[in-house]
């Protein structure tokens, strides 16, 4: 190295981001072939005792004498090993997106940048160019486009002239209104301009569906998908294809919001209300919010589609930040919204939780050779096993939760930590052999339906039978080919699917969501019920939805009965405004856990007092409290909620406060004495 310095070959130093939990970037001596346009390239550098792949954030002049304030002397810098030139540099707007995410969600910039890159591209060797070629490209003729409905035409007339600049649009289209067709027409227009489209979906299960529709419509256009079930190798390939511009359409789940797309022309977020857009590990970002930020920065339109928009987006419409576009009718010429019925079960005798009316509905469905769906948002056989003699319940040994009875493999399973053991033959406490399952889940409902309708073809669909995307695809095909009479399923079946033969949807066990401690529970319940109701009668036969409830007068059900999503959202927002909840306040939460709750609470109490309240009048810090489910996998958990009427005030406070926590004795980012692990979440969805 000394030699090349003498040769005057090294003129630059590189500022490099590295995947490390530190808020700093690192400077290295640049290799001889460096030019100022190398910003955004990957670079192999020595780090600690090993080598790492970092990302070049800046190419700065090397001031040999080290006089400039931030310029170290050349001999203090380690030389970078080599710059990887197998791919074009990450675009500047992509770097800004990652840096913005890091600052807003309080993560280290290096972590945000490098973790957005697939691991296959974070290895010190260049990617084999050959590997990048395979982009899925189906060669066949494009199918006929349907004639647009009046609603679709109106929406497109509004959107199409606005493709060349930023606008945030909430596409509020009832279930079955043909939002996908609107997306396809927008994509077509953007592709015609030679630009790329980013299409986000909340769930892996929805990607093949959409991918199929997109590749059918645009048979000659290279499409790639990015989600957690794409293999590492394919992810690297797809990411690279987006970066080089080879891929024109990227379809993916939340992580795809970080796909580098140099010719980005449009972002679409389907089912924008879905909580799955929130990342709950590592940097806890919200992909929808980041997508809107990204669109703004890139100067491209963003379309947020939903039949049940999030209250946050609804508020953004009210404040004028988003423009609302409506699809108020179903697309299929003969399809109307399903008729809704609330079955008041207070004075009914139920058989295994099912009323006679509900069973009669299913019988009618069978007689008419139509598909029915029984929706119960709880998997397993029963949520808890109890002893009739001593009151023993099947608690999890490691969590503050019951273990769920699973009948097929006869196990008790914790749905939080996964702890599983065989169902005991007798009570572990008193030896009584009469153990009884309480309540019901999908398996138990399936069992009783088989008793009532022995001739029917019944299919249960939940996480236990559809663990992977492949399994789900098999089930989906089965449903679509009408090999099924009655479906029993959880919310897996609610989202975004189009099953033309399905006419009846029966809902049981929904009341649990009405009075939950989490104030977002009703919002989620309403969206779920509207979505699941939306599966009924999407083609030529009218649909019926029957909801069993003990609270038929509840405002939520009344809105549901009238299909009145706007009324529900207005109610929600009014309640939130009165309570001072988001979006009328900004929140952040510090969560901490340790073996003992006392250590956790001590830690939170201590950090709460780090800055006196009078020094941050705009940010209120609540008392530390144990989390609702205090014990998870043997660790006890508590949280500290921060709230402010101003998002900026909260951000400023966090920027000052979090480094103070990490600087404390024995503390680092993420760890504290007493075996405490902690982390921060901005805009939490659960608190
Ligand atoms: N212009 C049209 N003419 C005829 N059929 C259409 C038209 N647009 C869409 N459809 C059909 O209507 C059905 C519903 O469309 P789509 O799945 O796009 O609805 P959606 O708004 O996404 O509904 P959801 O929110 O329930 O998923 C599909 O079968 C689709 O093929
Ligand atoms: Zn557990």
TrEMBL record:
EC number, UniProt record: 5.6.2.4
Domain Helicase C-terminal: residue ranges: 407-597
Keyword Metal-binding annotated: yes
SUPFAM superfamilies (alphabetical): P-loop containing nucleoside triphosphate hydrolases (SSF52540)
Gene Ontology CC annotations of this record: primosome complex
GO biological process: DNA recombination; DNA replication initiation; DNA replication, synthesis of primer; double-strand break repair
Binding residues annotated for Zn(2+) 1, in chain numbering: 387, 390, 427, 430
Cofactor annotation remark: Binds 2 zinc ions per subunit.
Stretches assigned to the Helicase ATP-binding domain: 160-327
Needed cofactors: Zn(2+)
PROSITE patterns named among the record's database cross-references: HELICASE_ATP_BIND_1, HELICASE_CTER
Pfam families, A to Z: DEAD, Helicase_C, PriA_3primeBD, PriA_C
Keywords: ATP-binding, DNA replication, DNA-binding, Helicase, Hydrolase, Isomerase, Metal-binding, Nucleotide-binding, Primosome, Zinc
Residue sites binding Zn(2+) 2 per the record: 396, 399, 414, 417
Catalysis: reaction(s): Couples ATP hydrolysis with the unwinding of duplex DNA by translocating in the 3'-5' direction; ATP + H2O = ADP + phosphate + H(+)
Oligomeric and partner information: Component of the replication restart primosome.
HAMAP family: PriA
Family: Belongs to the helicase family. PriA subfamily.
Record's function text: Initiates the restart of stalled replication forks, which reloads the replicative helicase on sites other than the origin of replication. Recognizes and binds to abandoned replication forks and remodels them to uncover a helicase loading site. Promotes assembly of the primosome at these replication forks.
Record's protein name: Replication restart protein PriA
Organism: Fluviibacter phosphoraccumulans
């Amino acid at each position: 190295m000394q030699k090349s310095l003498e040769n005057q070959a090294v003129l630059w130093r590189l500022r490099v981001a590295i995947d490390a939990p530190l808020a700093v970037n690192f400077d290295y001596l640049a290799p001889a072939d460096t030019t100022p346009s190398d910003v955004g390239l990957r670079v192999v550098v020595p780090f600690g005792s090993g080598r790492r792949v970092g990302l070049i954030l800046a190419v700065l002049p090397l001031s040999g004498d080290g006089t400039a304030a931030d310029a170290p002397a050349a001999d203090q810098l380690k030389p970078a090993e080599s710059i990887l030139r197998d791919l074009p540099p990450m675009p500047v707007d992509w770097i800004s997106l990652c840096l913005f995410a890091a600052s807003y969600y309080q993560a280290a910039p290096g972590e945000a940048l490098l973790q957005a890159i697939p691991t296959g591209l974070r290895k010190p060797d260049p990617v084999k160019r050959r590997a990048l070629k395979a982009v899925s490209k189906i060669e066949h003729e494009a199918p006929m486009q349907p004639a647009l409905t009046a609603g679709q035409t109106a929406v497109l007339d509004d959107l199409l002239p606005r493709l060349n600049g930023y606008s945030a649009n909430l596409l509020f289209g009832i279930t079955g209104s043909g939002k996908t067709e609107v997306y396809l027409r927008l994509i077509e227009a953007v592709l015609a301009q030679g630009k790329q489209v980013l299409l986000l979906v909340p769930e892996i299960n929805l990607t093949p569906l959409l991918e199929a529709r997109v590749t059918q419509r645009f048979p000659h256009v290279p499409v790639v998908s990015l989600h957690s079930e794409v293999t590492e190798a394919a992810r690297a390939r797809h990411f690279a294809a987006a970066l080089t511009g080879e891929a024109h359409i990227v379809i993916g789940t939340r992580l795809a919001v970080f796909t580098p797309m140099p010719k980005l022309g449009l972002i679409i977020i389907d089912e924008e209300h879905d909580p799955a857009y929130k990342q709950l590990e590592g940097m806890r970002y919200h992909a929808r919010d980041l997508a809107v930020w990204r669109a703004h920065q890139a100067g491209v339109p963003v379309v947020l589609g939903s039949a049940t928009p999030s209250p946050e987006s609804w508020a953004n419409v009210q404040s004028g930040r988003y423009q609302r576009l409506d699809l108020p009718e179903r697309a299929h010429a003969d399809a109307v919204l399903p008729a809704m019925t609330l079955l008041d079960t207070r004075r009914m005798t139920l058989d295994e939780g099912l009323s006679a009316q509900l069973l009669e509905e299913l019988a009618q469905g069978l007689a008419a050779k139509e598909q029915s769906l029984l929706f119960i948002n709880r998997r397993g056989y029963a949520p808890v096993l109890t002893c009739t003699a001593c009151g023993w319940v099947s608690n999890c040994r490691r969590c503050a939760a019951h273990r769920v009875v699973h009948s097929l493999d006869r196990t008790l399973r914790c749905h939080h930590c996964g702890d599983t053991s065989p169902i005991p033959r007798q009570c572990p406490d008193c030896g009584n052999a009469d153990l009884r399952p309480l309540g019901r889940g999908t398996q138990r409902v399936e069992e009783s339906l088989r008793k009532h309708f022995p001739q029917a073809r019944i299919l249960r669909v939940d996480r236990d039978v559809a663990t992977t995307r492949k399994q789900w695809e098999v089930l989906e095909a089965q449903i679509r080919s009408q090999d099924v009479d009655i479906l029993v399923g959880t919310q897996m079946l609610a989202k975004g699917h189009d099953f033309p033969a399905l006419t009846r949807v029966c809902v049981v066990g929904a009341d649990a969501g009405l009075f939950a401690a989490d104030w977002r529970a009703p919002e989620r319940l309403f969206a779920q019920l509207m979505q699941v109701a939306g599966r009924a009668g999407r083609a030529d036969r009218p649909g019926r939805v029957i909801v069993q409830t003990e609270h038929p007068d509840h405002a939520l059900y009344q809105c549901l009965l009238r299909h009145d999503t706007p009324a529900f959202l207005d109610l929600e927002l009014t309640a939130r405004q009165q309570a001072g909840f988001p979006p009328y306040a900004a929140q952040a939460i510090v969560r901490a856990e340790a073996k003992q709750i006392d250590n956790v609470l001590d830690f939170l109490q201590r950090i709460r007092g780090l800055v006196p309240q009078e020094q941050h009048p705009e940010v209120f810090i609540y008392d530390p409290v144990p989390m609702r489910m205090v014990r998870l996998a043997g660790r006890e958990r508590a949280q500290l909620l921060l709230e402010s009427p101003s998002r900026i005030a909260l951000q400023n406070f966090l920027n000052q406060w979090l480094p103070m926590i990490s600087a404390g004795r024995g503390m680092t980012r993420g760890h504290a004495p007493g075996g405490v692990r902690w982390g921060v979440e901005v805009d939490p969805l659960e608190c």
